[in-house]
Amino acid sequence: MSSLRSTLLGALLAAVALGGCATRPVNPPITHIEPGTGYRFEVRQRYFKDKENLVILAFSGGGTRAAAFSYGVLEFLRRTEIVGPKGNRVRLIDEVDVITGVSGGSFTALAYGLYGDKLFDDYVERFLKRDVQAEIIARAFSPLYWGKLSVTGWGRSELAAQLYDEILFNGATFGTLARGDGPMIMASATDIASGARFVFHQTLFDVICSDLNAVPLSRAAAASSAVPVVLSPVTINNYSGTCDFAVPPWVNRFIDSANPPRPAARALASIRDAEEAYGDSAHRPYLHLVDGGVADNVAMRSVLDALELLEALHEVGFASPLDTARRIIVFVVNSLSTPKTNWDESEAPPGTLEILLKATGVPIDHYSHDSVELLRDTAAQWQAQREIRAAVTIKPGASPRITELLDVPRAEIYAIDVSFPALRDPAEREYLNQQPTSFTLPAEAVDRLRAAAGQIIAASPEFQRLLKDVGARMIPDAPQPAAAPTP
């Protein structure tokens, strides 16, 4: 028995020693910025399929609930073809240009960006119906990982990122996405010190003078889903001020203006916010990232920022999809649930962890509603501007400022709400609302979430309006091509 204990103790000490040699992954610095390269919106535009339609999916947070619900949206778009007025048929999923993702939604977004059609072969069993939460907990309590957890910068989220890489991402980085021709994927986290959103695209990494291409997708997913208290922050190195970062060229048209147009002013504010939050590496050499839902739980701020940027580019004559787009179609995929508690039935108050999680969730819910309303406000504003432009005749020799103000985007915005309240069946709505925010759900819940997403889109008045306006009809359950090879 003594010999056995000695053997086990020796194995334990060896595991701790080996783990102690580990270091967290470090995002590398850059000394020069290449605006025409890297994983950024301006570069990814070349892969947008349809010049008349800009299609955006916004995947909310919510653990496996969000991952399964957003996956159900992809399944619906994949199996649904539309027939255009000229008889051409196209799968809806092939029209998608941009996917934003937060927390649980970021897993589905990043995985689809990586695998494309191959994702539909095994994502359900590989991730959605897997008890990911139990596996993370098991690693946290395993002596094999204690050494790593003792290293500065190595926390539970790094253990989670390692697991995500093993079971889903297979070593892929943003450089892998950059080499593909899929939609632009924007996963978001929150900088816990400033409260600012941290979006994984090269434009923001230019600010911190770092190469996004080297960053593993698993770390972006871990940062986006690092629920405060439950999981540790993910640490990113900040090298700002060590490269030749400068504001984009179009900014110079507005930077000295006392009264820039509203879209340009908002786009400028976003750039300045990023510089203020991340531009001082001398005092902020490290950024600690937590769940993106803290700042934006429906991934809508990235959508709104993109629209503001497009409008600003359009105003100054820089090429953007708004030059040709007639429609901007946004699927707002919000898996927000409202599970009931039994706190009021007991004299004993809820525990500290329960209160912390609830306190975090309440403001997130309010921000979710505000973001969707801002999108609708933008749609109404553009419509009003188009009506004004149609009624005004610009005389020869008119001020360029007048011409600029009246050169409004011709694109119409379609905001398609994909959320539990839109589900017509009250019993099913109640069932989905009771699903918790965790990384483990019963297989039945996963399947019902997937099915509900398609039902909600098919019944959406806004989706039906879109089909009518483009003169198209829907062909459900269209035959599918063979899956693309794994990258």
Provide structural commentary:
The structure is a single chain. With 487 residues, this protein is α/β, with parallel strands linked by helices. The chain has helices at 2-20, 41-44, 63-79, 104-115, 119-128, 132-140, 146-149, 156-169, 174-179, 202-207, 217-224, 262-278, 300-315, 352-391, 400-406, 426-433, 443-459, 461-469; strands at residues 53-59, 81-83, 89-91, 96-102, 184-191, 197-199, 234-237, 286-291, 327-334, 412-419, 473-475. Strands 1, 4, 5, 6, 7, 8, 9 and 10 form an 8-stranded mixed β-sheet that branches. The protein has a 3-stranded antiparallel β-sheet with strand order 3-2-11. The longest helix has 40 residues, at 352-391. The protein is globular, with a radius of gyration of 24 Å.
Keywords:
single chain, about 475 residues, alpha/beta, eight-stranded mixed beta sheet, three-stranded antiparallel beta sheet, about 10% strand
Helix content: 40-55%
Mean pLDDT equals 81
E-strand count = 11
**Largest sheet geometry:** 8 strands, mixed
Write the layout of secondary structure elements.
Elements: H1 2-20, H2 41-44, E1 53-59, H3 63-79, E2 81-83, E3 89-91, E4 96-102, H4 104-115, H5 119-128, H6 132-140, H7 146-149, H8 156-169, H9 174-179, E5 184-191, E6 197-199, H10 202-207, H11 217-224, E7 234-237, H12 262-278, E8 286-291, H13 300-315, E9 327-334, H14 352-391, H15 400-406, E10 412-419, H16 426-433, H17 443-459, H18 461-469, E11 473-475
Parallel strand pairs: 1-4, 1-9, 4-5, 9-10
Antiparallel strand pairs: 2-3, 2-11, 5-6, 5-8, 7-8
Helix pairs in contact: 3-4, 3-17, 4-11, 6-8, 8-11, 12-13, 13-14
